[in-house]
Amino acid sequence: MxxxxxxxxxxxxxxxxxxAVVTKALGHKANFVVxxxxxxxxxxxxxxxxxxxxxxxxxxxxxxxxxxGCEAKHALVEALNRLGxxxxxxxxxxxxxxQLEPVGLVFDPSIPDMxxxxxxxxxxxxxxxxxxxxxxxxxxxxxxxxxxxxxxPKFPQIDVPGVRISSARGLGLTGQDSAALVLRAxxxxxxxxxxxxxxxxxxxxxxxxxxxxxxxxxxxxxQPSETLQLTGLAVAELRPPNAFEVLGWLWERLxxxxxxxxxxxxxxxxxxxxxxxxxxxxxxxxxFRSEAxxxxxxxxxxxxxxxxxxxxxxx
Length: 315
What we know:
By secondary structure, the protein is mainly α. The protein has helices at 6-13, 19-25, 31-44, 49-61, 71-82, 88-95, 123-135, 142-149, 162-174, 177-189, 194-207, 212-222, 225-238, 243-254, 264-270, 273-285, 289-296, 305-313; strands at residues 100-101, 105-106, 115-116, 119-120.
């Protein structure tokens, strides 16, 4: 008869365990158990901030090798962020945590030979930490987000852009003029991957709606389609002021480019009456009928949308 494994049994039973068991599991010695418990705490929105903070402090103090992939720390920071924590001290520690782990050989064209370069397993966790600090209104995180936004990896092949994406989004939450200028400088520099540039543009829309006509619209005219498609999805997710107007500019720029019709999903994600009317208008006109209908499909059973789509198809 196989020997019982209490850790495996706890892990397998956590999903259906009561709240007290889940909270207690945050103090477990196995990082994968802690990670799963933290995710459940966030899903259930349990009042367990003190247990999450204690667990995170514990893992930040332990040798990095005990938390491979930064699994426990990342999940704990994610849970604190989702629950809207104000525990800024431990978040500042997490926002500065670096955990280098071997990734093997990486080839860089500028270097004649293969090189060994570790990957920073804590990069995405730092991103979530700065985002949580920004959401908590912590003023001291602003310089850190600026540093992270402009930080670039030595070897692009093992780039982890999550911390730069989160820093851009965090700057958009600050409401500060200085943050808007930083994001504007990032867009002018235009030397990053599409995901970071798209997030920076969306954050700027959040911060400074009055710059839409004078800066954002001309910026859209100059960008490659891949960047603009990602910008559309980010706009739909964060819904800055005048999101529908921004998506309209993106559509005019992309409508006849390859993959441009995918932007229609962003209109549907807004779930607003102007966006719905716009998609119904495309169905009525016919040129992008199938794409517009596909964008609305996930919400067909809400209200009278299905009948409105049928009416639009009839012209």
